[in-house]
Structure formats: structure tokens, C-alpha cells
Design brief:
Elements (H helix, E strand, L loop, with lengths): L3 E7 L2 E6 L2 E5 L9 E5 L2 E4 L8 H4 L4 E3 L11 H7 L4 E5 H10 L4 E5 L4 E6 L2 E10 L8 H4 L3 E6 L7 E4 L7 H4 L1 H4 L2 E7 L17 H11 L3 E5 L11 H9 L18
Parallel strand pairs: 3-6, 6-7, 7-8, 12-13, 13-14
Antiparallel strand pairs: 1-2, 2-3, 4-5, 9-10, 10-11, 11-12
Helix pairs in contact: 7-8
């Protein structure tokens, strides 16, 4: 699988084409303008639509769903899409909810560092490892809910895994990740999310913390996602570019912005 292509569709949503596999991350396809409640007095309005309509997407083999409880990672049209996807990999709690609701077919729930293998005739297998994430300040999981990231590994990778961080802050568990994984490419969930009701508390990585994480993980390619399209994203492309421009070790040269409109 030398030919790997990533298409950023908007927000956290990206299509990863690895060999014959077509893998979609955190599907969000609703149009802009609607306001969503995230619970506990938090909410946000969607300000931009997807670069691709689901009808233009083509077949999807697998959805990697970091969590199901917030519409900026799984909105209504994204949830509808799950019914047509053969395999969904997500958190253990989300898997139980999606299975009970009959939303998806083969739903696999993973806790951090658990693994599953994607297999299909005529395709090389991909090992999916759930990576730790914390979607907010310490002790926030009972309120915010669990989140995982995903690392994709297959035979022949020369420089490490393809890693999707999921919505997370830079927590101690993430600092341990370089001891377990070598990362080639990272889909980095950013945005510096915060809400008026919780003041300065952050629920996803700021640009400054993203630089710190990348200095630890040392990926060859850094692809920002989850930084635009919603009111509660507080740091956009300009803030990320400033932070990485002054980063040590040439990290800024590894930053790659994918266009949000396909040719």
C-alpha cells in the first residue's frame, strides 16, 4: 500500500484511501447554519458545510469514529451514512449505543490500546489500534464522555503508522504514545475548543500544545483537521501556522494543509 491518499472533507472528517481500502474518519456532512446542543450548557453552530456530499463520496469500507456523543464528530447525515458502511470502529460505549439503535452493521468497540484487524479478500490487512484521548480537563470524562484515536498499521510501512488523534487535549497518556508507536503521518485534531460556561478550560488541543505533542511523537507528516467550520473552534489555521513556524526541529516544514474543496 505505497499509494496513500488523504482527502479533508471538513471539520474532523477525512477520507483515507490506503491501497484498496477506503476509510472515513468522524463523518460530518450536515449543511451549515444549524445550532447543536452538546449537553451540560454547551453548544455550537456549524459555520461551514462539507467539501463533499455523501453522494459524491463513493463506497466507504470503514468508519473510524472517535466518539458518537457530539455532532461536530457525528452529525445527522453522518449518522445516516453509518448504515451503509460495513464496519464502524469506535469507543466501547459508542459501540453499544450504535448497536442498540441499529445504526450500523459491524460495530467494533475499542478501549485505549485494544486492537482489531480489518480484513477482506484481495486486500492487505490493516491493524487498528485505539489510542488514548481525553476530551477535556482532568476528571471530565464522566461529563464529556470517552474518546479514542486510531493508529493504522500494515505490512510494508517504512516510517511508522498513520495516526488519527481524535478530539483530545495533551494529556499524560498521550505523552506515553511514542514509547508504543512510531508515527509517520498524523491527522491532528485541533481547534482549541472552549465554551463560555467553562471559561478557559479546553476540550481539544491548542496550536501550542499540538507543537509540543508533535515534538514528542516526531511524525514525518502533520495534517491538521478539526480546526474550522464551527463556532466553538477557537483557533484556526492562522494560529496553527504561527505556532508551527517557530517550532523546533523543522516541524513547521512537516505541516501540510489539505484543501477543503476537491478539484
Amino acid at each position: 500500500m505505497d499509494n496513500v491518499r488523504v482527502t479533508h472533507i471538513g471539520g474532523p472528517t477525512a477520507l483515507v484511501e490506503a491501497g484498496a481500502w477506503r476509510i472515513l474518519t468522524d463523518p460530518t456532512f450536515d449543511p451549515p447554519g444549524r445550532r447543536y446542543s452538546f449537553g451540560w450548557g454547551t453548544g455550537s453552530r456549524k459555520t461551514a458545510g462539507p467539501a463533499l456530499d455523501p453522494k459524491e463520496l463513493g463506497p466507504v469500507d470503514v468508519v473510524l469514529l472517535s466518539h458518537d456523543q457530539h455532532a461536530d464528530n457525528l452529525d445527522d447525515r453522518g449518522r445516516e451514512l453509518l448504515a451503509s458502511v460495513p464496519t464502524v470502529i469506535t469507543t466501547a460505549k459508542a459501540a453499544r449505543r450504535l448497536t442498540k439503535a441499529g445504526t450500523a452493521q459491524d460495530v467494533r468497540g475499542l478501549r485505549p490500546w485494544e486492537q482489531t484487524v480489518l480484513e477482506a479478500p484481495g486486500r492487505p490487512p490493516i491493524t487498528v489500534t485505539a489510542t488514548p484521548a481525553r476530551h477535556g480537563p482532568p476528571l471530565s470524562e464522566p461529563i464529556v464522555g470517552p474518546v479514542v484515536g486510531f493508529a493504522l498499521a500494515w505490512d510494508g510501512q517504512e516510517h511508522g503508522v498513520l495516526w488519527m488523534t481524535g478530539d483530545t487535549v495533551l494529556c499524560p497518556a498521550l505523552r506515553e504514545l511514542p514509547r508504543r508507536l512510531t508515527v509517520d503521518t498524523v491527522l491532528l485534531h485541533l481547534g482549541g475548543v472552549r465554551f463560555p460556561i467553562s471559561g478557559p478550560l479546553r476540550y481539544t488541543m491548542t496550536a501550542e500544545k499540538a507543537v509540543e505533542l508533535c515534538a514528542l511523537v516526531n511524525p514525518r507528516t502533520i495534517i491538521p483537521v478539526h480546526y474550522e467550520g464551527w463556532e466553538h473552534f477557537r483557533e484556526g489555521r492562522a494560529a496553527v501556522e504561527r505556532a508551527f513556524a517557530g517550532a523546533p526541529g523543522g516541524l513547521g516544514e512537516r505541516l501540510h494543509w489539505l484543501p477543503l474543496r476537491v478539484p
